[in-house]
Amino acid sequence: MASLYLSRLSSDDRTALIAKLHQAQQGHCFICEQALDLVLHKDTLDIDHVVPLTNGGKDDSSNFALTHASCNRSKQASNLEVARVLRRFAVLKSEIEPENRSPNLGDVLKRAGGGNADLSFKLGVGQVQFTFSAVGDERIHSLPVYEDELSGFRYFFVKLPIQYLRHDERINPRPIGSNISKLVEEFYQKRPQLHVPLAWMSSEDGKGAVHVFDGQHKAAAQIMLGAKALPVRVFIDPDLDTLITTNFNAGTTLKQVAFDKSVQRHLGSTLYQDRIERYRRETGRKDEHLAFSERDLVSYFKGQSREMKRYILDAVRDAVTSSPDNKLRDFIDNGGRGKERPLSYSSIDKTFFSFFVYQEVLETRLDHGSESGENPRELETEQLIQLMNLLAEEIYIGKFDSDVGTDKIESRLQKGEIFSHGHLRAFRMSKEEVIYNWLRFVRQIATNYFITTGKPIQEAKLFQYPFPEQLWINIRNFVRNLADLPLWVNKDLSATVFGGKQNNSFWQTVFETGKSPQGVQVMPQGINLVELIK
Questions:
Q1: Residue 207: which of 113, 107, 123 has the closest Cα?
Q2: Domain 105-251 maps to which CATH number in 3.90.1150.10, 3.90.1530.10, 3.40.350.10, 1.10.275.10?
Q3: Choosing a second label site near 186 at 20 to 30 A (CA), which of 79, 160, 495, 502?
Q4: What's this model's pTM, rounded to 2 decimal places?
Q5: E-assigned strand segments in 296-371
Q6: Backbone phi, then psi, for 285, in 5-degree steps?
């Protein structure tokens, strides 16, 4: 975002600001920390906000920094302090490349002056005592020791200076991945670490290293941001083979991953409601007062504008998929890995929500048109549910058999297994690349209806306009006629068209021409939308 402060400076004032920043930065670029010469780099330097205006940064001299223009253009984050941290990590990666590997927590610790001390400790009954002599702390610290009820492992929780931490390359040989940038930005926003790193130590000599084997990305991100001590759960004398097996299973058979998207949407919706309540409370509005817009909320929480937009859209998505009136939700696998339901939440996200939910924030008040049924977000939600119900009635209810499921349908079909036409049709029409294309036709049918009836609309807000009954009839006719096409139950297409995952353009070609891009005849001819809505 352009700086009003800079635009108002005279030439002399701008020169003075550059000199002041250059002196404060000791002649170095704020991002790459290499020399910045005011003569040699005169035409290739930038003045930029350290904290972007969009994140609540001030537009005054206290929030500016001097950078090489090339560094500023190629920075990995909009916040210059975060960009500098990530640049340091990029330098570390380049230094380690000759070793044919990528950085791990040990490398980050070493760069920060950590990983070079052993912990002196004394174990007693139910407690551990230790000192931090390596950092000049000679006090005797005492902490309780617990026992894990299932594994029997002893452990304690401690905040350890980074000098006492090591990276365990045997249990956790993984390097630090690209997602470190997101963690750095997250922790820079002063958001807390939710899971502490896990480590182990041996009690054999009363002095030794504390080996971190889990949570290295979170630990590394905090150290890169300047943290000098980290909270850690330390196991005492654990069976290392058990830890290795546990860590392996966590990344393979257990597939411990982040929340499913459906859960994320629900959490986003909850956060949206929380922001509404905070806005009311902090601006002196009464409970249930909704005389403000989505835009007002985004502007008020200006340091969280990107998050607020996501919360708003998540609230719409969650309202659709969690509605008890939504007949399609019984056919959606929210986890995305099941074999019983035909639709994955990912497919819903990439089609219904991508095509039919307006992706920008609204200027209209949240209570606009609520009593008359013309509230844009409520109408959008209601009509999206109505569309899903229509599809459930025409394609899934009484036709798709969850006991049969979706596992290896085409392979089983080729081996002679028999499926009902209704089940096979629902399965094939639900493939992500297939539904992506025919749902686009639904959008096209709705848009053309408004055009032919003379009503001007904004296509991006399509579902925020009330659909007349005739339009719903057209859509139902289209879905019904599309579902009646022979290709959905043609067993001969199992080894070709439906034999593997195709892309979106493949099915676009099929629907437009009747043939696959490879020339396989799928339908006698391409579909005709005018004929299909009759």
A1: 123
A2: 3.90.1530.10
A3: 160
A4: 0.60
A5: 332-333, 343-344
A6: -90, 155
